[in-house]
Amino acid sequence: MDLTTAQALVAWLVAQRSETLDGAEVPLFPAAFAIFGHGNVLGLGTALHERRDELPVWRGHTEQGMALAAVGYAKATHRRQVGVATSSIGPGALNMVTAAGVAHANRLPLLLLPGDTFTGRAPDPVLQQVEHFGDATATVNDAFRAVSRYFDRITRPEQLMATLPQVARVLTDPADAGPVTLALPQDVQAETFDFPDALFAPVLHRVPRPRPDLRALREAAAVLRTARRPLLIVGGGVRYSGAGPQAVEFAERHGIPITETTAGRTLVPHDHPLHAGPLGITGSASANALAADADLVLAVGTRLQDFTTASWTVFAPDIRLVTVNAARFDAVKHGALSIVGDAAATLTELDEQLPGWTAPADWSGRAAVLRETWDAGIDKLRAPTPGKPSYAQVVGIVNELSAPEDYVMTASGGLPGELIGGWRAAGGAPSMDVEYGFSCMGYELAGAWGAAMAHRPGLVTTLLGDGSYLMLNSELFSAAFAGHPFVAVVCDNDGYAVIARLQEGQGGAAFNNQYPDCRTTLADPPRVDFAAHAAALGCSIFAASSTDQFRTAYAEARAAAVATSRPAVVVVRTRAGDWTDAGAWWEVGVPQYLSGRGEYETSKPVQLRYARGR
């Protein structure tokens, strides 16, 4: 088929299929997000127009925002579908680098197609081209190398035949999933080549389930049998494998308390008797207390990020660590006894190695007792109080009014701690996306657009602070224009309150976080009218400044989003100084001369330096 490079690429995208967790066949690339400019409007833009009925194209309003929407789409479909984002050269391309970082940190698939400068170089230097004095081959798109799982620059049309199988491999590989960047020089996009028909034959991509090594299974089972106080941690890999039910059944058969990471949140029913709660700094005191007493941790599908491990202080220093992960890179961390394999397959086969073995009943029973104490504390934090509500009260009302099939999101600031630690899930299908791998301010609205268009059951609600809203809000209009409804709860507490807490809590002066502590030449500086701004972007608007008002406003917003097929925004004034505290420690750089340094030194627990599972 005599096609341009751009036509061939789009034809290949259309031909790729994917299998969902429940066995349905769907497009691997269900949506493309585009902002056209010189560098992609004629080559790739024309090709996308020709196949627009087979690959829907949605217009973004910031390149970062539309690429983050693609990330949110991938998370909402449990990595079974991949969003595509394309931009012009120069600033348009560089605006997507942050989204690539989000996808890379969270191991989420994303396909980026930035335009690039001419390979022929005849018109150089062109508009938006950055010239490197010592390297004529370098362009701004080389910035993507640090945040891409796979990077290629297509300088000849026929290169597609070699690179596209690698693109599909990375985007569907449970061990290697992440962003792929194909830089597309604008002259090459328009060049033609006689491509073989076979390149465009439909392909169904089934995510592989690699089986674990039998010797590693037997070794892990032998170690588990010696444990008196085992703890099971379920992470994002359990979610993407669809192994939530297997993890719960494994825990039930062996009496092992369960805790969740941020990415594994909502896999376990909140009131399950073995559920200890979420683990770590933004987790729960109940799970952290069990972790401190555990003599063995079985960590499944998690990269054990510092907020999960409390900078590696949440466990006893002599803990034995057994890990299960599809990626060997993650499995071997901290010298763990590692099992490399799919979460569902490994839990099934590990279970077969442990007939009749259970943890002592007194240890198994501690999970529910500790979690009930944690729940009682959360109930007190959620109880109505006069005046502006706290974050915990806002989260409690959203939790109460949400249906089990609904989807809740956040990303940065103080809300992850409230949502992870306080949310009570029905269990079953994962129903939460907390982007806390990169903690990207602005993901909350853009990612919600992607999640809302992923055709999940239920309604998407995203929670964010005023700081995140100001960082990136343009995709509210994208969603309103496209007709993708969700509810956005904007908690306005006058600035970057959670960073002010960190700053002042460690002895720093209040500086440049809350508005009263920021420099201005005005005696009466302006404030943002978030409701008016969101209304101007096409959203339904509701406002609240008390818990009762918020309950009413959120219920009305839910109804409005469904009725209008547009986002509904609830702006709620919240208190800046109330936080849920899981009692965990976090490694931060406290200068020697600050007053908080002494407490930092004395309160620092013993960190786990190197643990071997044996």
TrEMBL record:
EC number: 2.2.1.6
Domain Thiamine pyrophosphate enzyme N-terminal TPP-binding as annotated: residue spans: 41-128
Cross-referenced InterPro entries: DHS-like_NAD/FAD-binding_dom, Myo_inos_IolD, THDP-binding, Thiamin_PyroP_enz_cen_dom, Thiamin_PyroP_enz_TPP-bd_dom, TPP_enz, TPP_enzyme_TPP-bd
Keywords annotated in UniProt: Amino-acid biosynthesis, Branched-chain amino acid biosynthesis, FAD, Flavoprotein, Hydrolase, Thiamine pyrophosphate
Organism domain of life: Bacteria
Record-annotated Thiamine pyrophosphate enzyme central domain positions: 217-350
Reactions catalysed, as given in the entry: 2 pyruvate + H(+) = (2S)-2-acetolactate + CO2
SUPFAM superfamilies: DHS-like NAD/FAD-binding domain, Thiamin diphosphate-binding fold (THDP-binding)
Homology family: Belongs to the TPP enzyme family.
Protein name in UniProt: acetolactate synthase
Organism in which the protein naturally occurs: Nocardia xishanensis
Gene: iolD
